[in-house]
Amino acid sequence: MTGRQLIEIAHQFFDAYNASDIASLEALLSEDVRWEHHNRFKGAGRAALIRSIKEIAQTTPGRRFTEPTRWASSENLIYLEHQWHAVPTAANAMFGWQPGVPFSMDAVSVFVFADGKIIEWSDYG
Fold first, then answer.
1. How far from chain centre, in Å, is Cα 3?
2. Taking CA atoms, which of 32, 53, 102, 105 is between 20 and 30 Å from 86?
């Protein structure tokens, strides 16, 4: 895949994430996708990732990733720098969230692709 194709899929993923568009997210993910937010949590499987995304959406309505400020790609991998913003409704010690207090995090997302699907998503932030 070309870098332009990879960034387009990444944009589709983050647009769907930001909108809580579960059907679009499911279409972009492989059945056995692996994911990890380094130093915090990880898992495997599309259903488990969707469940995790839904849980985060419940405690951080309006959460969103911003447009990437920088990205680079290879044949099947893309690296993106951006930010994640939210206003949590509940405390979360793992992230240091406080209810009603806006939270921003610089993030790096790395996607690995196979057959046009995301097979791995790693976040650092």
1. 18
2. 32
